[in-house]
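Here we describe the complex-level prediction in full. Unlike the single-chain runs in Section 2.1, the two entities below were treated as one system.
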Amino acid sequence: MKSFEMPVGPLHVSLEEPMYFRIDVEGEEVAGIEITAGHVHRGIEYLTAKRNIYQNLALIERVCSLCSNSHPQAYCMGLEKIAGIEVPERAQYLRVIADEIKRAASNMFNVAILAHIVGFESLFMHVMEAREIMQDTKETVFGNRMDLAANVIGGVKFDIAEDRIAYVIAQLNRLEPILVKEIIPLYETNSSILSRTRGIGLINRDQCIDYGLMGPVARGSGYAYDVRSAAPYAVYDRLDVDVITYPDGDVWSRAMVRLKEVVEAIRLMRLCLRELPEGPLTSGPLPFIPAGEAITKVEAPRGELIYYLKTDGTDIPARVKWRVPTYMNWDALEVMMVGGRISDIPLIVNSIDPCISCTER
Amino acid sequence: MAFLKILFDNLRKGPATEAFPFGEAATPDAYRGKVTFDETNCVGCNMCEHVCAGGAIRFSEQEDGLHFLIWHNTCISCGLCAHYCPTKAIKLSNDWHLSHLQEEKYEQVDHAVVPYRHCTSCGERLQPGGPMLHQLAFKGTNPRSQRLMNMCPDCRRKASYSGEAL
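The structure predicted for the assembly as a whole is:
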């Protein structure tokens, strides 16, 4: 059998983000893979130490578009921890709503791209159209389709008044039947989807733990780790988050975890809207942030996002560092890809829901 | 085969996209669009300039007053300025019609002057508080507070103590 080396990337491997792989190929089979990173390094961590804590809210939100709420949330939680700020209860609930609405839209986007790679364009369109319900909701509640700008230090800067609650619930009522009655059964039974995604990109539970994998990738291999239940933040401890796992660890399982998580996100949003207490949205006007350090973590759509913050008593942070789930998930591609076919590479890459702009910042 | 029904349903529903530019595109009230500035309520605290992530807002002190400048092309519509503005003099409108010709790119600027006043007692230059600040601080105004509002801090203290503004 003839073996050769094949470059994949750096442009548009599965998503419109630069990833570069050098792949050793034997016939149709992938024998080895070398990952080259660093194509979209923008130096954002450095920039955070050049801007004040308020400006960083907007900067950090723009690290990545799909998990753009998780970053400021972890950042705000860190500053609140350092300053000992108590976030009002209403704001905590609203933060969960912002988090879950982003998760719903992000997961549906990834699953839609899966259909696109399979070549099932009409399903891709259908999922994207359903996702548009969430996009419209975000625009109506937060004022933007992607960058919610929901968090400020000590609370949130948006509110969901009574009439808005009715609107959001109506939108959720529109999305849920499409998801549960049309999209999920299609991904479960459609032969085009199943033949391209089942048994592909395999990774088992032990390998997930070895590689420190996070989020839907780990949960698709039966490793039930979710920050929302393992180390609850905001009001997740009261919501009893259902951690969805699938045992097989293939591309299909990861997609199913994501789809079921959208259903769970809808449930959590409903719960928060019902329980939403009255009260202030922020803890006060301007916080004083003393010198200190904090580590916080949140469950981004792709998995555990960890923030480290160090302040020196001024309003410019001394250091902001984050670790994103894609960093580990990306590395595990060498396990998932080896032994697979060339034609499955985009599907496997997409199955980790790579967020390169987060990873390379 | 299950998808055929969905395809048929979608076909029956017609286009899912908005008719823009031939029809109106729906814009929600909360939409974060072009920044607007109300110079009568600005108190010159410069907080919006401080929090502006892109550095789109600039203040400069000049003879006639405080000059406010916003570069709309640098603005990222994060809404931090509006959130931290104590008197809500700066707001985000629903206007998203920001496209323009390349040669007009340096003209996408709004300029406003918050004029200085002069103390009615000694003539000293002062930054006016604006009606909204008085509303926030004193829950309204009365003739006395309006007289005091147009004095510099020193004269205000004296007038207030001696009772002459009563």
